[in-house]
Amino acid sequence: MADRMAFLNTARAERARRDARERLGDWREVYRPGALLPVVGGQAERCMDCGLPFCHSACPLGNLVPDWNRLVAAADWRAAAARLLATNNFPEFTGRLCPAPCESACVLAIDGAAVTIKNVELAIADRAWEEGWDGPRPPGRDGGRESGWRVAVIGSGPAGLAAAQQLTRAGHATTVYERADRPGGLLRYGIPPFRLEKHRLERRLDQLRAEGTAFRTGVWAGRDVPGEELRAGYDALVVAVGATACRELPVPGRDLPGVHQAMEYLTWANRTDEGDCPASPVSAEGRHVVIVGGGDTAADCLGTALRQGAASVTQLDINARPPGRRAAGQPWPVHPKVYRETTSHEESGAAAAGPRVFAAVTVGFEPGADQRLGAVRFAETEPADRSPRAGTERTLPAQLALLALGFSGPEPDQRLFAQLGLAIGPEGALTRDEGFGTAAEGVFVAGDAGRGQSLVVWAIAEGRAAAAAVDRYLRGRTELPSPIRASERPLTL
User: What span, in angstroms and rounded, lies between the C-alpha atoms of 431 and 423?
Assistant: First the structure.
């Protein structure tokens, strides 16, 4: 019998990580194998059957969190997996990569420690794979049949993959176009393997192929295959090209050799891990490294640089250090901006690699004797507008600087947009209506291309909702779930 008072009697416990120094010697995921199952049963019991599950609304997928918590507490793992997979195509990705806004909205988080929802989700997802409960579901398996309609999905990140899987399972002949040599988008080339080992992505891609989804890699839609040809060859298109236009830092010295965008750096690191090259041409080995930015991408750069053997790594965050607890202006159930340390920051402390500097604005890059990057100049910020404060400039030695400033939207010069008649709005994303449709007949936009830079969980929700919109367009109706509208945003104040 589950402990109905576990939310009072059981403390929150997290999945155990491997020792930080050990982790720096390899590229494997940071958690101890087998360390999850011993803790999640008791953690699932902490779900208090609150009757008003804000965790549902905080998750754009509408994950049935209390349902699968209750089932895990009762050791009914198969039923828990069925509940989880009903709303989330890729829970092994979200369980590893999502910052868990559902936990911020847990009722226990009002004045205490939330249920470890993300850990429970991951345990269910991994158990489902181990037991074979998450096998391929081709259209005929559940009584469906092939519809006769053909759909092209442009882009193979989480939004494109989710849309493709939903459309294939609905019976539509679905082909995914990806300009890179392998599918996966940022899941493959943007996320380091210590956060997501790529065999997990390959396993999911094999599932999509077994269900009937076709992949055409190394094909740049709009260049290798014109938009007009795509329109003629398919009954509907889903544009899910992501938001890959990196934000720039227009300061003196930006063009010096040794200053790189974070995504270029991470892509080469991932390609090296895939075996494409013996060593990354943009490596941190033996170099003093400065990372400009304070988000997840910056943390991924930090963990990567440490594993490559950087001499030092300093992270410059233009924002002031967040408080340790919710600020008054960010009350429950919003996902608050509080001070967090990632596994990469833990590793940086263990390696004594360098500081994490807050309220620091980068003002320029200076050349060394070889006319490559030699130093980074930065200053403290003025609290009012984050401009450089006079008299506070400092210089850091650096042979590699990584710009992790986020993304402004899809790359605006893609030929495909003009060929399809797609417009980019004032915020940099592709314009679309509430139902993910565009001014072009039969063309839909999903994921960060239409939403702007967001989280993997929002990308999956977008892909599922866009697939439902396409299915409705083709059939006149749909039974596919549509978890969000195109205009929906995270709960904020």
Answer: 6
Lowest mean pLDDT among 71-80, 110-119, 140-149, 431-440: 140-149
Task: Write the CA distances from 404 to 72, 258, 279, 298, 347, integer angstroms.
Answer: 38, 14, 22, 5, 19
Tokens of 489: 């945003």
**Which of 401, 391, 365 shows the shortest CA–CA distance to 265?**
401
Q: Convert the pLDDT of each residue in 212-262 to its tens digit.
A: 999 999 999 999 999 999 999 999 999 999 999 999 999 999 999 999 999
With a cut of 90, say whether residue 376 has pLDDT above it.
yes
**What is the arithmetic mean of pLDDT over 377-402?**
97
SS3 string, the chain, reads: CCCCCHHHHCCCCCCCECCHHHHCCCCCCCECCCCCHHHHHHHHHCCCCCCCCHHHHHCCCCCCHHHHHHHHHCCCHHHHHHHHHCCCCCHHHHHHHCCCHHHHCCHHHHCCCCCCHHHHHHHHHHHHHHHCCCCCCCHHHHCCCCCCCEEEEECCCHHHHHHHHHHHHCCCEEEEEECCCCCCCHHHHCCCCCCCCHHHHHHHHHHHHHHCCEEEECCCECCCECHHHHHHHCCEEEECCCCCEECCCCCCCCCCCCEEEHHHHHHHHHHHHHCCCCCCCCCCCCCEEEEECCCHHHHHHHHHHHHHCCCEEEEECCCCCCCCCCCCCCCCCCCCCCCCCCHHHHHHHHHCCCCEECCEEEEEEEECCCCCEEEEEEEEECCCCCCECCCCCEEEECCEEEECCCEEECCCCCHHHHHHCCCECCCCCECCCCCCECCCCCEEECCHHHHCCCCHHHHHHHHHHHHHHHHHHHHCCCCCCCCCCCCCCCCCC
pLDDT at res. 38: 73
- What are the phi and psi torsion angles at 275 (to 5°)? 90, 15
Residue position matching structure tokens 């995270």: 490
Question: The pTM is what?
Answer: 0.96
* Distance of alpha carbon 419 from alpha carbon 429, whole angstroms: 17
